[in-house]
Amino acid sequence: MAQAAAKAATKQDTFLWEGKDKKGQSVKGETTGQSVALVKANLRRQGINPKKVKKKPKPLFGSGKGKVKAEDIAIFSRQLATMMASGVPLVQAFDIIGQGHDNPAVSELLLSIKADIEGGTNLSEALAKHPYHFDDLFCNLVKAGEQAGILDDILDKIAVYKEKTEAIKAKIKKALTYPTAVVVVAFVVTAILLIFVIPQFEQLFSGFGADLPALTRFVVDLSEFFQEYWWAIFGGAIGGVYAILQGKKRSRKFREFLDKVLLKAPIVGPIMVKASIARYARTLSTMFAAGVPLVEAMESVAGAVGNVVYGRAVLRMRDEVASGTQLNVAMKSTDLFPNMVVQMTAIGEEAGSMDTMLAKVADFYEAEVDNAVDSLSSLLEPIIMAFLGIVVGGLVIAMYLPIFQMGGVVS
């Protein structure tokens, strides 16, 4: 009951307001707050005399808010870093970004954070109230910037980090989506041919009064199987994909199994390895640059590498580093990092420039991922064309083979 009451007490609603500023000019806008009275008090503190404040009506159908995406957070990070570097006050920066955003969900999120900051909450604490959008890594970096008095510099590093990590994610999605989409299209086209087209040929063949070639017989039998059990085939395929997605979401062991398979998969595996190393190096470099202690930083790094296998390895490395082992030695013991990465880490430790060295490692592997994905696209195009040609061409040949044979007998 107490938790429910506390949640209700901190609930933020969206309000539309109209009033006059210090110059007597009419102004209006949108903000968030817990009540009309608190919104009016907040507007007066900003030098606005509110004439009308009312709760924003909800859309008749659905929330109409859209969704806050990771790309939105990356763009917000860059906008906030730019405004802070330009000397714009934090509250005003949130107001400008929030009011001007095209996505209502992002606007509501940012205006809610702005209201918390106006109430005296630190930025890191205000962000921590929204863990789905701002993870521990983001909040820890902001907190470190607040404590060191270099928030604008840290926000710039966060913006670079978010931009780089989102670019890596986009590349990985591209590498996985393209072949998957083609396989799905090939399966659907083949199923349509087997269910609707092949039966028409089968009726034609039944009047030949002769045995069908082995290839044709196989295709006809496959067509009959699809016609009878199409619901089980499509249901099994959709159910299998759903089961995999749910298993990945709910079971850590299953997620680890999938990540292991992806790391060892041909063609895609090397890309996943390079992407994990790039995320590891970029995250740890950003944490080091913010002055976060190594052991504390590695806990956040483990959750940011995007792969359970590498995440567990980073946690083991953290324990070894906490007991006095050098980072490069701990990395080498995992057998997951190439020798170049280990050696550059060792040089960074000796020279006291870990953030710089790790940033160079991240730049190198991000470029490697870019090149690998581009090469993969070029490599897959002829392979996919050949695959589709074999599948569709094989079905066509199987259907016309009896006609060719009959033509040969007649001649």
CATH architecture label of the largest domain: Up-down Bundle
The CATH topology of the largest domain turns out to be Receptor-associated Protein
Strand portion? 5-15%
Mean pLDDT: 81
CATH top level label of the largest domain: Mainly Alpha
Protein name: Type II secretion system protein F (GspF)
GO biological process, one term: protein secretion by the type II secretion system
Domain Type II secretion system protein GspF: 76-199, 281-402
Region (Disordered): 1-31
Supply database-style keywords.
transport, T2SS_GspF_sf, Receptor-associated Protein, cell inner membrane, 3 domains, about 75% helix, transmembrane
TL;DR of this structure?
The chain is mainly alpha-helical and 411 residues long. The chain has 3 domains: 13-55; 70-158, Receptor-associated Protein, CATH 1.20.81.30; 159-410, Up-down Bundle (Receptor-associated Protein). Helix content is 76%, strand content 6%.
What is the element layout, followed by pairings?
Blueprint: H1 2-9, E1 13-20, E2 26-33, H2 36-45, E3 49-55, H3 70-85, H4 90-100, H5 104-118, H6 123-128, H7 136-148, H8 151-206, H9 214-250, H10 252-264, H11 268-289, H12 294-304, H13 308-322, H14 327-334, H15 339-351, H16 354-410
Antiparallel strand pairs: 1-2, 1-3
Keywords: Cell inner membrane, Cell membrane, Membrane, Transmembrane, Transmembrane helix, Transport
Pfam families: T2SSF
Subcellular location: Cell inner membrane
